[in-house]
Task: inverse folding
């Protein structure tokens, strides 16, 4: 009986960190492509077709956007390259994988490089998916390695919460 409580305690301690989350319908509530849950303690800003999210200390950045349906595979790659190269000098990809989250196929890769702003190390991750089989959506994050490690569980929960709208 006591062993069960040892396993339950960490789950209960983490519950307050995630129990309070808001669901965002993207790109709008009338015709959402997907829904995502972001903790209430994070700052979320909707700017046109972009959804920006960050913890209150703004130590990591998480952005969501949908590309125009006319974008082909090469166009999507070029758009992602532009965003990464605006933030990271000499980016390298460390890992790539294909996975399925809530019955949506994702292509995900992560890498590192030096910040364009100050030369410090910066990790990044990019997830591409199509919730409707037509529109390509992109999620991208940037953060210093220590900040990414600190927010890793929350970032994973946010990505795992993505579902069709």
Result:
């Amino acid at each position: 009986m006591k062993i069960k409580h040892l396993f339950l305690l960490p789950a209960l301690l983490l519950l307050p960190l995630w129990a309070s989350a808001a669901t965002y319908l993207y790109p709008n509530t009338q015709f959402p492509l997907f829904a995502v849950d972001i903790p209430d303690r994070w700052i979320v800003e909707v700017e046109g077709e972009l959804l920006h999210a960050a913890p209150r200390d703004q130590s990591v950045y998480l952005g969501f956007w949908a590309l125009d349906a006319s974008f082909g595979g090469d166009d999507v790659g070029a758009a992602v390259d532009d965003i990464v190269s605006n933030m990271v000098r000499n980016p390298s990809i460390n890992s790539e994988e294909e996975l399925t989250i809530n019955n949506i196929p994702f292509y995900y890769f992560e890498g590192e490089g030096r910040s364009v702003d100050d030369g410090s190390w910066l990790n990044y991750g990019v997830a591409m998916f199509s919730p409707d089989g037509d529109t390509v959506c992109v999620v991208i994050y940037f953060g210093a390695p220590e900040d990414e490690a600190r927010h890793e569980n929350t970032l994973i929960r946010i990505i795992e919460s993505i579902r069709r709208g």
